[in-house]
From TrEMBL:
Keywords: Cell membrane, Glycosyltransferase, Membrane, Transferase, Transmembrane, Transmembrane helix. GO terms for molecular function: glycosyltransferase activity. It comes from Candidatus Scatosoma pullistercoris. It comes from the Bacteria. Signal peptide: none annotated. It is a multi-pass membrane protein. The chain crosses the membrane at residues 243-268, 274-297. Its main location: membrane. CDD domains: DPM1_like_bac (cd04187). It is found in: Cell membrane. This is Glycosyltransferase family 2 protein. Pfam families: Glycos_transf_2.
């Protein structure tokens, strides 16, 4: 396939979108491995690095790479906005007919990206990278990740592939569809499923990071889960009704037991022995339901504020 020329700028066939946060050790290795591999395709490509407010020398390394190779393009955020914002920025800046999102730490193997391109040429619009094995991750991380995907499939209408992350290939029309969605709190892997089109998977064994440490703390994982569940499911809003109904049924059953025991003259500790646990359970359920409602209100508040999803301090080669 030939690259498209629009105006003065030649549109590349492929765009690589790479979020980077404190990846000073990984970036040179990534560039050295990915560049020759992409060149074997014999088609134009661009690498869009999004520096997500790194505190190490990531910015300086990316600047040096961009000065050496004009195919390297850089967006520097004004602060850390998170991986989803960095991916969104990269998709927005991309010009390729096929866009591949991948990590800078080489846990998303470039060789698998070649398999994704082959699937795209077969006619697929989205190609997900599905992890068979996850090396270098704790048992807790593996367990919570597995639980998250299955939970998402259970309570949303989305048929999200299990054990996939943000490593995937998008056709240009899919990118345009995702960018047309205006939500502030995004989980791109959920939106990718929602937009539809022809999708498939490529399985791979995820290796350990080539350098550095993971930046996904438990707090970030919880925030990511919130961005996936609440904007894509009304189930938490209906949960209070179900819990309330269950509590009413439990209370009714309890009173029936009281009446039967009283009629049989069986000592059961008196009403007080049952009253306080019941009140505690009811209060706990009320607080949980109130908390769920507050999460939705918080997200509505974020949408109403209409703040930018990220702020770009400067760009290179864009």
């Amino acid at each position: 396939m030939d690259s498209i020329t629009t105006g003065r700028r030649k549109m590349p066939e492929y765009s690589l979108v790479i979020p980077a946060y404190n990846e000073e050790k990984s970036l040179p290795l990534f560039y050295e491995k990915v560049t020759p591999l992409m060149e074997t395709l014999g088609e134009d490509f661009e690498m869009i690095f999004v520096n997500d407010g790194s505190r190490d020398s990531t910015k300086e390394i990316l600047k040096a790479l961009a000065e050496k190779d004009k195919r390297v393009k850089v967006c520097n955020f004004s602060r850390n906005f998170g991986q989803q914002a960095a991916l969104l920025c990269g998709l927005t800046e991309s010009k390729g007919r096929a866009v591949i999102a991948m990590d800078a730490d080489l846990q998303d193997p470039p060789e698998v990206a070649m398999e994704m391109i082959a699937k795209w040429k077969e006619g697929f619009d989205v190609v997900h990278g599905k992890r068979r094995k996850r090396k270098g991750e704790t048992v807790f991380k593996k367990a919570t990740a597995s639980l998250f995907y299955r939970f998402m499939r259970k309570i949303t209408s989305l048929d999200m592939p299990v054990d996939v992350g943000d490593f995937k290939l998008y056709d240009r029309k899919v990118v345009d569809a995702i960018l047309s969605m205006g939500e502030h709190d995004r989980l791109l892997r959920a939106q990718t499923t929602w937009v539809g089109f022809r999708q498939t998977i490529v399985e791979f064994d995820r290796p350990e990071r080539v350098a550095g440490e993971t930046h996904y703390t438990l707090k970030k994982m919880v925030k990511l889960a919130e961005s996936g569940v609440f904007p894509n499911s009304s189930y938490p809003l209906t949960l209070p009704i179900k819990l309330g109904g269950a509590l009413c049924g439990l209370s009714l059953l309890t009173y029936i037991v009281f009446i039967v025991l009283a009629c049989c003259k069986v000592a059961f500790g008196g009403l007080t022995a049952w009253l306080f646990p019941s009140l505690g359970l009811a209060a706990g359920l009320i607080l949980c339901c109130h908390g769920l409602s507050n999460v939705y209100l918080s997200m509505v508040y974020s949408e109403v504020q209409n703040r930018p999803k990220y702020i770009v301090a400067d760009k290179i080669n864009l």
